Amino acid sequence: MTEHETLKRHLNRWANRDEMREAVAATMLSIADSCCAISEVIALGPLAGSLGASQGQNVDGDIQYALDMRANELIIDEMIDAPVAYLASEELELPVPINQGAPLYVAIDPLDGSSNIDTNVSVGTIFSVMPMKCDKGDSESDCFLQQGTHQLAAGYVIYGPQTAMVMTLGEGTHIFTLNPDTGEFCLTTAHIAIPEDTNEFAINTSNFRRWDGHVKAYIDDCLDGAEGPHEKNYNTRWIASLVAECHRILVRGGIFLYPGDRREAYRSGRLRLAYECNPIAFLVEQAGGAATTGNQRILEIEPTDIHQRAPLIFGSRNEVNLLAHYYAEVHPMRERSQLFGNRGLFRTG
Ligand code: MN
Ligand code: MN
Fold this sequence. Notes:
CATH class of the largest domain: Alpha Beta
Helix content: 25-40%
Oligomer: single chain
Bound molecules: manganese (II) ion
């Protein structure tokens, strides 16, 4: 095997004895260690017990699986030695205090895609490292509500055919592949760049009737292919595992959409801002792509709740910009039939 820089070495070189950077580096290594342990449990599958068994619900009413809770515990165990003041997790109603006075806090989705675990599809851990610097007030709880632009580091670990950490420190997006023999994450792709153009879109089309006019019009035009206004044929992709979708898009481009829809619980989509949308948006922007709600850059959303949701659209820059035009120019209440009518009653095909 060729020599690859380890995550540890990469982080040490980057930190260069800067105190804050050293704290971020130590935290990243703790996350990497816990993900290494999670990876081992996932690789055992049914041999490790019934990991896909549901165990109740989290604060948001999502089903919690045995593996969600196991991953959450493995992360908390590792965080105890990290310079982290609080840990906010999808599986915990409130952020838990870890080390008082420490300079960082971490928001994490311990296991993303856990409802897929029994199907042996790629799942992941998504994380965001923030400073414990409060710009809203003095209350510690205000610190959890910072815009994504304040992230010091972010990424995910994907548990697929290979386990890999995809991370950014704000200086590009890099992929480190886990060598299971040594337990080390090793740099395999530095400065990944998302192709600017794409003809692949990923959205749960079963919700078509529930979307607003912007999304309907965009998808309609995608489906019209080379004869439509986009003048190209598309392929669809939908894995229903955020890290798997993001990984594909980082490697070969694409656009992913999880918009809000008409249902009360889906007004702002399903994905959580702090530990899903923000870290993914940071990674994607650092790889030259774009991430938006349709109307607003994800990283500039002013959060009001640690578990709040946000519509998430990300991917190849030119395609995301094209989609943004539909938000700016198509009326949200305009229905598909009216839109067609608008384009000409004598439209054929
Ligand atoms: Mn998730
Ligand atoms: Mn989860």
